[in-house]
Structures are given as structure tokens and as C-alpha cells.
Amino acid sequence: MAMQVSGNYAQSRTDYAEKVKEKQAAERAEKAKEAEKLKEIAKAEQNKKEAKKLEDVVSKITDFIKENKSNMDKIKPIIAKSKELGYDNPTLITDINDANKVLALIS
Fold first, then answer.
1. pLDDT for the residue numbered 9
2. Residue 28 needs a FRET pair 20 to 30 A away by CA distance; which of 36, 43, 74, 104 works?
3. Domain enclosing residue 45, as ranges
4. Can you list the alpha helix ranges (DSSP code H) found in the chain?
5. Over its length of 107 residues, how does the chain's per-residue pLDDT go in tens digits?
6. Domains in the chain: how many in total?
7. Do 96 and 50 contact (CB within 8 A), yes or no?
8. Which of 61, 85, 88, 87 lies closest to 75, judged by CA?
9. Can you give the pTM of this predicted structure?
10. CA nearest 58: which of 105, 96, 104?
11. 99 CB contacts (<8 Å, ≥6 apart)?
12. What is the pLDDT of residue 13?
């Protein structure tokens, strides 16, 4: 009888250890899921910031064009640079680096 109790005790310890391992694995998976969610949120925030920067730069370009629409000598270099970068219109620029290159012509 003593052997049987000992065997059951050993089995219950093994069961408990397996349950603990399963719980730890589930907790790690949950933490990984939370970390991934935080990364996605951070990336979305970064994309918003970049979009805002692009919008601001394109807005400056658009304002400059509106203010100088009667002076084609000031506008032609902007249009030429936009076309060189692959855009038909300077107000349709979609890359912040390209927008900054065009903005540099204005400043």
C-alpha cells in the first residue's frame, strides 16, 4: 500500500508540473500577443506622424504655388523637380523625402 501512495504522489507532482508549464506557456503567449499589439500601435502612431509631416510639407508647396501662380519662373523648377521624381503634379507627392526635395527649391 505504501508503494501505491508513493506512486500516486509522484504522478500528482508530474501532473502539477505539467499544469504549471502549460500555464507558463499560456502566459508567455499572452505576453507575446500583447507585445505584438503594442508594436502595431506604435507603428500606426509612427505612420500617422509621417503622414502629418508629409501633409504639412505638401501644404507648404501647394501654398507657394497658389501664391506664385502668376509667376511661372518660380513654379517651373518645382514642377520640373516633381516630374523628375515621378509625380505629374507637386501636390500629389506621396513620399516625405521627395516632398522635402521639392520644398528645398522653395526655401
1. 63
2. 43
3. 2-106
4. 2-67, 72-84, 96-106
5. 444 445 566 677 788 889 999 999 999 999 999 999 999 999 999 999 999 999 999 999 999 999 998 999 999 999 999 999 999 999 999 999 999 999 999 87
6. 1
7. yes
8. 61
9. 0.65
10. 96
11. 54, 57, 58, 61, 93
12. 76
Q: Which three cell numbers stand for residue 22?
A: 502549460
> 64, 70, 72: which is closest to 106 by C-alpha?
64
Provide φ and ψ at 90, rounded to 5°. Answer: -65, -20
pLDDT at 12: 77
3-state secondary structure of 70: coil
Question: Grid coordinates representing 98?
Answer: 521627395
Which among 86, 85, 88 is positioned nearest to 105, based on CA atoms? 85
Residue 86 gets the label, from left (phi > 0), alpha (psi -120 to 50) or beta, of: left
